[in-house]
């Protein structure tokens, strides 16, 4: 049986993670366009392939560590401006709502925590599937050779 607390915790972390990814993607597109850069030009400045920038803008991945800091430097923004929804007032105030402002170390720790919880969830699902298969095999009648 899957641990309900684990599923709830994973669900909350996934929701926070994907909310952050969506805001990040929108902000990256906005700030890149404000600088007049194409995905290819930004990728060249970062020393990466433009497919990576495309994945960030689609919300399929996030830059980590030094790459995130270099991206912020190129765009002239902070990691928080890039990561969280802006309030639209143009005054640079970040609408954090219930979110916590994260520094690089906390960001990386949260990513590792999410990876860990996903791995536990996957292992629990595999165990459930294995247990079901074992149970179904117990119920199979095996033909017996008649003398």
Characteristics:
single chain, 147 residues, mainly alpha, 67% helix
Task: Tell me what you see in this structure.
With 147 residues, the protein is mainly α. It has one domain (4-85, 101-130): lambda repressor-like DNA-binding domains (434 Repressor (Amino-terminal Domain)). The protein is built from six helices and no strands. It has helices at residues 4-34, 39-46, 50-58, 65-75, 79-83, 104-138. Helix 1 packs across helix 6. The longest helix is centred in the last third of the chain and has 35 residues, at 104-138. It is elongated and about 80 Å long. The relative contact order is 0.13. The model is unreliable at 88-95 (pLDDT under 50).
Low-confidence runs: 88-95
- Could you name the CATH topology? 434 Repressor (Amino-terminal Domain)
Helix amount: 55-70%
The tally of helices reads: 6
Order of helices and strands: HHHHHH
Strand fraction equals: under 5%
CATH superfamily: lambda repressor-like DNA-binding domains
CATH class: Mainly Alpha
Number of strands: 0
Distance between the termini: 43 Å
Secondary structural class: mainly alpha
Give the mean pLDDT.
75
User: Major sheet, described briefly?
Assistant: none
Query: Radius of gyration, rounded?
Result: 22 Å
Count of the separate structural domains: 1
CATH architecture tag: Orthogonal Bundle
Shape: elongated
